Every structure is written in C-alpha cells, then in structure tokens.
Amino acid sequence: MKKNYEFWFIVGSQFLYGPEVLETVEARAREMAAELSKALPYPLVFKTTGVTCEGIAQAVREANYADDCAGIVTWCHTFSPSKMWINGLSALQKPWCHLATQYNREIPNDEIDMDFMNLNQAAHGDREHGFIGARLRAPRKIIAGHWQDERVRQRLAGWMKAAVGAAVSRSMKVMRFGDNMREVAVTEGDKVQAQIQLGWQVNTWAVGDLVQEMSAVTEAEIDALMAEYLARYDVHTDNTAAIRYQAREEIAIRKMLDREGCLAFSNTFQDLYGMEQLPGLASQHLMAQGYGYGGEGDWKVAALTAILKAMGEGGNGASAFMEDYTYHLVEGQEYSLGAHMLEVCPSLAAEGVRPRIETHHLGIGMNEKDPARLVFEGKAGPALVASLVDMGARFRLIVQDIEAVKPILPMPNLPVARVMWRALPDLTTGLECWITAGGAHHTVLSYDVRPEQLRDWARMMDIEFVHITAETRPEKLEEELLVKDLIWKLKK
Ligand code: MN
C-alpha cells in the first residue's frame, strides 16, 4: 500500500553574499538532506536554493503537481528576504514544514568572524521566514532544533507521516455497501463537504453486486486465502464452511475495492441481503492489510482508519476501527471495554499472541449462519482514540489520549476481540470531555499515531482539532469549544 512518497527540501538564501556562499549553502543542504533521509521514513530531496521570487514559485508549482511529493521542508541557511517567497508560498498546495535549524551545532570560539556570521544566520533568516508564514496565515508545521538531534528527527518523521496521511486522504475512495444505520446521527455526514475538505470520494455499491462477486470466487482462490489464515491464526472451530464463507467474502470485497481504487469500505448488518454472514474475519483480515473499515455504514471512521493506518509504521500501522462498548466502574479500576460485534483489526493484538478463529451465533442483524471472527486481546501501552464528527458546515477531529491495559478480566464468554483502556485524565472526566465535544462511539484506536501527528493532519486538512489530554478539564473544554465554534463559523 505504501507509495514512494518523498519530500522536497527548499533552502532559503540570496545573492547578497556572493557565489561562494551559495555554493556552500547548496553543498550543506544536500548533505543535510542525505543524512536526514537515512533517519526519516521518507526521503528528503534537496530541490533548490531559493534566491528569487520566480525560482521559488517555480519550485512550488512543481511540488504542487508532483504526485510523489507529499510536502515541502524549508529552512533559511542565510537571510532570505521573504517578499521573494510570497508568490510561491501563496500558491503552495502541499503540506509545509519550516525546519528552524542551523548547520553547525556550536558557535566556534576561535573561528567565528563576520563571514561566519553571514553564512550561518538561520537565527536571523528563519525569523524573516517565519514572519511571512504568519503574515500569509499559511498553515505550517514549525520544528526548531539542531537537525542532528534525535527529537528533531522524530518530530520531522512524525510530520512526514501526517503529510502522507494528507496525501492518502486527498486520494481516498470509500466503498459503501448499504446506507447508514437507521436513525443513527453521529455516523452521518455531508459527503460533498467531505470531498471538498478532505478529498474523500464516498460512493455506494449494491450489496447485490457484492453477492454476485462472491458467487464468482473460485474454490482455488478460497484455498489460497485459507492457507494464509492458517499461517497467521489459530482455528478454534470445527465449522470450516463458515471460515471458507468469510474467505469468499474477503476475496470478493477486495476485488471490488481494488477494481475501484477504494482503500476503505463500510457495510451494515441491516443490509446483508443474499449473504449468510456479516463479514467478520473477512473485514478483520482486510483491515490487517491496510484497508479501512466502518460498521453500521460509518464511512467517516472507515476512511479515517485507512488514513491512520497509512500514517503508521511501514505504511500500515497498529490503528483500527473501534467502538466504546461498556465500562468497568469499580473505584480505582475504571476502564472502558472496546470491541465490535465482529470487526476488530488484529493489528491491535498483544505481541506474540495468535488470534483465534471462532464461530458464534450473532443475534443482531440478518445473519443466517454463525459468522467466523478473530478473537484476541488488545495489547497494553499508550494509545489514542480519534473520532471525526460532522458539526454542520465543518468537521471536528476529537483525539483522546488513553492508556491501554491487558484486559483485567478473562471474559471467557465474550465472543469478540477486545481492548481495555483508561481514558485520560481519568475515565469519568475523560468521558465528560468526550461527550462535551460530541465524540462518537466509533473511533480509530491507534498505538503508533501520536496526537501531534493528528494535530498536524487536521491543520493540513483545515479542520477543527480537539485534544483531550491528562490536563483537560470539562469546564475549560466547554469554553474552548464555544470559542472555536465562533471562529469556525467566521472562517467558513
Ligand atoms: Mn458499531
């Protein structure tokens, strides 16, 4: 799924200091790009030294049209007068990171003279550069620090993945099987606005088309996928026919997704006409391969799942469709139990644990037969949950920090995969904050996408961002949301 994205390094300077300085600037910029590329998830490619308005505008135009270019990184080695940058930055359509760094780490006590000062004046140049970003009200990420520092590299790596999330978003296609679950509000949304704002093409295909596709799947294709299931999962059922039926569903769904270029899909238990089982194992194994999924017609969470997966490690991280199901409210042991009726991605499974394939009766929906599904426990560790809601005329991305734990109960009769976590600042305060912000029961739970990346992504997509952390208090959040509501009404 991972495309060969790259980022362009455009370094600011000017003619004032003579050709030798410009040669040094370019040589160092090339060296920095090459060195940084070794530590970053995507290559940073030196593009040009910006010394004229025309040259910078040309580089930006090329970045806008280059499919592989997921964003630009700028830095001013010397002073670089910012009027030269106005035309280019005004036309920029890709994510922008201003890396406020410096080639040398130390001020060299003996060597420093006015030539050194003129060559190494990022402290000066990056402020001029920062002003024009602020003056243009341009959405940008600012990362300050020495380019060889681990923390700087990690933040730049995180921003790059967020920018890839923006690129994936702008090319996102979602396949809907069936409509939104009857009467449900939070999973609804304006699909036209989603395409304008986020680039998502959200369209519907008939369940009958899928049933027809399923009927064309061969036994040989099913055998091949069954071998893959057996290699990755333990079978805890005698009902091989149910597993083979899920394989048939997965193959058919995947063929339709790939044919249409869709990276995410939604379905609903209310519309399984002609199908024996709600896709459980099928959806789970598709998610493990990087496809996004949303239950009950929730196309927003389906697309968001695919985007967070693409932002994760190796272009397919530990991010998954999740649902807040029920609470453990014992004092000192306050946890949420997350699951879904079937569809939890095995990328959340605890390390070294092989998910079990089981078949159980599913009372909800139109299942004629017991669906096969993967059952496992989610892993422990810091994570987040993210929910995208349609506030009318704008989208709001709500992110909450959570601490996932090994489930404190074995729950032997629970026939689905489960994750247990403590919301921050604590379950009940966090819940009050979540409800205040209007967050959904459906979320994307991620162990490897960090809140800073989702803040970056929201800035790139120009949508509202709300972050519930260990410090958030409901009364402050209420004020924040009131202010943001006014700002966004003025903005749009
Ligand atoms: Mn649900």
What can you tell me about this protein's structure?
The chain has 492 residues and is of the alpha/beta class. It is built from 15 helices and 19 strands. Helix 13 packs parallel to helix 15 (474-491). The protein has helices at 19-39, 53-65, 83-91, 114-119, 122-135, 150-170, 191-198, 207-215, 219-232, 240-260, 281-288, 299-311, 427-437, 451-461, 474-491, and strands at residues 6-12, 44-50, 69-76, 96-100, 141-144, 173-177, 201-205, 234-235, 264-266, 292-294, 319-330, 333-339, 356-359, 372-375, 381-390, 395-405, 419-423, 442-446, 464-468. 46% of the residues are buried. The longest helix has 21 residues, at 19-39. The strands form four sheets. Strands 11-12-17-16-15-18 form a six-stranded antiparallel β-barrel. The protein folds into two domains: 6-170, Rossmann fold (3-Layer(aba) Sandwich), CATH 3.40.50; 173-491, no CATH class. The protein binds manganese (II) ion.
| Spans where pLDDT lies below 50 across 5 or more residues | none
Rg over CA atoms: 25 Å
Number of helices: 15
Percentage of residues in strands: 15-25%
**Helix percentage range:** 40-55%
The distinct bound ligands, ions and cofactors come out as: manganese (II) ion
For the biggest β-sheet, the strand order reads 11-12-17-16-15-18
Shape, per Cα inertia axes: elongated
Mean pLDDT: 96
